Queue: 2 jobs
Job 1
Amino acid sequence: MKKILLCLGIFCSVSIVAQEKENDKLNFFGGLESNSQWYLNDKDLGVQHPVNPIRSNNYLFANLRYKGWTAGLQAESYEEEALLNYNPRYDKTDVATYFIRYKNEIVDLTAGYFYEQFGSGLLMRQWEDRQLGINNALRGGRLIFTPVKWFKMKGVYGRQRTGFDVANSDIYGADVEFGLSDIFKMQTTELSVGGSYVARDEKILVPNPYYSNRTDAYAGRINFAHSGYYASAEYNYKMPDAVIEKKEEVKNTFVKPGNALLVNMGYSKKGFGIDATFRRMENMSFYSERAANKNQFNDRIMNFLPSLTKQQHYNLANIYVYQAQPGVNLADNTVLKAGEIGGQIDFFYNFKKGSVLGGKYGTKLALNYSDWHALGGDFYLPKKDYNTDYFGFGKRMFTEYNIEINKKWSDKWQSAFSYINQNYNSKLIEETFGEVKTNVLAAEATYKLKATRSIRLVGEHLWADADKKNWASATAEFNINSMFSVYTSDMYNYGNDDPDLRNHYYNVGGAFRKNSTRIAVNYGRQRGGLVCVGGVCRFVPESSGISLSLNTTF
Amino acid sequence: MKKFSLLLLFVGLHAFAQKELPNLQLPNLDGKTVSLKSDFSEKDKLYIFSFWATWCTPCIQELDEMNDLKEAWQKEVNFEIVAVSTDDSRTQKRVKPLVNGKGWEFSIILDTNQDFKRYLSIVNIPYTIVVKNQQIVHIQNGYVPGNEKELLEKLKTL
């Protein structure tokens, strides 16, 4: 409560001061998001509602801006409790983050909570994802200094947010970037290089440790583009530190450094694009507290290690989703993980309007292939050690190829078609058992009835040779006008070997939107499994109930 | 919950304040830094900022439609479309080949760590704002087919 009153006090006084001068514009702005769920008993699905069946996650973000100054806070409320399987540290109501920032063309200074990312985030990224319950902002200070167009420097210090508190460690970081193409006045070529340093200082509790309190990490990167061609590379190194195989188990006997290499290149011109990415990661899990490594809520995570596969939007294509494997686990001779190696290739092509395949409105084609393996090398058990080969491809963890075709037939008709083939090694990825091979077919069509009235139909089928076997899914969406939409969908696991588990996951709902406000209600069942956003996932249990969500800005 | 309501009440008191575009610098697709404050400041020109991502189907649908209609509209209204990619580093590398593959002809800016999106409290994409003289004059949250034509009609009145 004290925090709230303090913040309100600051806000009010800033408002009063600012309103006295009519020429200087004072801006007040922010947003509100509320996601509530009333969990119900569902005998057929075999779920019972939790003790507190009505739960709600609420976020209020409010800011004041006056000239170059911005002050803001985010209050969060999880009442009576947070939605199922959110981090239990999100408890009740409080001010979660606050900041004050001054910015001009040269200096950008923040005190309080901030979000920063160095390079592609393999060493450090702070971000917020409310669907996943991630908010790993740093509380401290940040300075971004851009004295000339071709040079940028960042310095950060802070403690990382966890729940409504901060983690018990200090994070330091610095990043520089040079725009070489500006320095050497290159007209048609883009070339920049950068480097970063990140350190986590956390007191070690084990006696006579073989590693130090402060873990230093370094990265270098280069970025190049010329006419249609582009390429970039980033290398990261993390000094030796305790390897965490199981959550909360920080040992003194298994100490290894980590590293990551990310290379991307591509070429594109009008109507055509190709892009390829390679990544190798070895022991790259990095948390603001060592013991937090491998926690299921992504709590206290310091870096951003997304799975580099295509983000699919169809329901059934999101059952077997690859999750990046940066960590180490030498469970037994069949599960030997020290990281991952692999890549993906994307291809985009636009059949021109008027061509044979393009027709009157053109046809869009996208292909994607990804392949990920465990790092290969020599592993020593039960001693617990390893020596990886730099380009060692170990056991396959995930392979996918997919094709997507989008076609507009007329002013009224539009359709899309997807085929996806996946090979998902659950034993290695989830550390459970088995392997699943799938084929997914999905087709959708949108028909426009009038100005903003349209119907969208989606049909999907998944063939799987193991686990829960086959699924079928259908979705119908009716956009009544630009304000109201309703939809209904069902996912049916008809192929399950166990007749009692051949469940329907039906949903029916509607949404209203006007200007910046959106309100949606839904009744139905939630399939248990992973909810993934941007290649980072959260596990959700099966549930049944009514949900209400609202978001607006002011 | 009481505390939360107290904050909401406070927000209510301020709800009529005007909203300005943030002073942020973000990279564009050519690696050049673009300033929201100084690069989109032509007097009385309308700037449509459309927030999208490579994995967001309705976003791409909306931008495809706008790309097809853009030229015809520009005869009637002085406006420019800016597609703000909210792709994070997982999918950001896909932006360039996708944009060129589709042949979109508008400026693209990269909001890789979502500073712009966070500043505007955007929860879902697609999300489109219309800016005139640095002030946000219209917001469209979401997209259904046909919205693009509604937006043009709206532009004529702004």
Job 2
Amino acid sequence: MKHRWIVVTMMSGLVLALSIAEPIPVAGQGAKPYSPKRMADGHPDLQGTYDLATLTPLERPAGMKAVLTREEVAKLERAVKTQVDEGAKPISGERAAPPQGGDGSAGAAGNVGGYNTFWLDPGSTFTVVNGEIRTSIIVDPPDGRIPQMTPAARQRIAARLLAGAGQPNNDRGLETAPGAYDDPERRPLGERCLLGFGSTAGPPALPNYFYNNLHKIVQTPTTILILNEMVHDARVVRMNAEHLPKHIRKWMGDSVGRWEGDTLVVDTTNFNADQIRYAVQAAPGRGLFMVESLGAKPQDRLQGPSQDLHVIERFTRVADNALLYRFTVEDPGTWVAPFTGEFTWPATNEQIFEYACHEANYALENILRGARQRDATAK
Amino acid sequence: MNRIILVAAAIALTFAVPARAHHAFGGEFDANRPVLLKGAVVKVEWVNPHAWIHIAVKQPDGKTEVWMVEGGSPNSLLRAGIKRDSLPVGTEIVVDGYQARDHTLKRANGRNITYPDGRKLFLGSSGTGAPTDGADPTEKKK
């Protein structure tokens, strides 16, 4: 088993060794306040490509302190690098096929093992905000955890699941979800190339701890584009505009922006019902918003926000090579309190590549064909 | 056992939680159809959401079957310096994985993709398929 190296064991925040040496931007230091480069309209220039990959989880692991020392973080980042190196080691070229009946891998690797780690780029450093090396993106509540859900929200989600609205489960075998692999409409949005998985596009835009974490901002006085690499999710923020009527629902919601001093504030409501509905069904994992982290407890995964989900994001340029991204999530029908998170978006010179997800989505075809074959053999 | 080790353990635990991925591997591939494929690359589709490597696999009867092997999103590899010709046609590779649930398809997940000597694809420090970093004197000039 030593030679086995599957994607599921990689979820450990492994990264291609080549991308490890990014400097950590440190915001808010120095005597003089930072003065950002400005656009012709006088507002700070937020444009650039940013790599959101980080080892800092959305929620703080139990028992962990909020801020790490340089020595502590060096140790942790070394441990991750060791895992990366381990995954890069050669195995036997004369190996046998993997075990009949599955290789025992869990999660999305689904007992068949996913793929090698060299495909991944999940981040190699912890986020640094105001010179602090953070152990969670969530900063309010101060325990770094998403607040408890309301009893009404738990009931709502349970009812949704019972009604079959969210049956497919990205992580489990066919046996847990009859028919779930048979209908493209019931496959998760990421698998259908409709939105990147997790809360990659957001809002809030969060790291996915896997790959394709690049975001690009393009800015004009009237419109700001936030482009997410995965699935080419492009969110258009209308500046100084009113929200659309409540019944008009959009992927990634309806985002309107305004400047508060040198900070861009983006207010998002009117989320597409499917985005919210599918939020209750996808993979459990590291506590990612919109999918599994909608609750504070990892074991309590089947949770999702309501139609009234409201996200407020704040983008501030804090260095020539970094933005500070801060967000607050409000949904009184779902959580007992709002919560706020923040992390640094380091600029990168790397390019965002075209995604063109539909054109080569053999995986969805394979899944649907697999279900049909299963039906045929059952008859 | 100092505090940092505990912290590391906490982080490792966090990281060990199941994988996220673009799709459900368990829905796509059949755990009862393990395969070991050896053959030469005939085509590489550097596409999203997953790259696909096509290889010609020799059968015991001497005939050749082309299999498609699923990898990850190519974007990270491209950023790591892998180019479209980093895995040239004709490169011999070894793949272990599981066949698609529809057995009429010669498709499998690339659970492990290596060169015949066991080096992971794209990660070898030299030789065919390694990043063209100049470390290999036999490397073809671009």
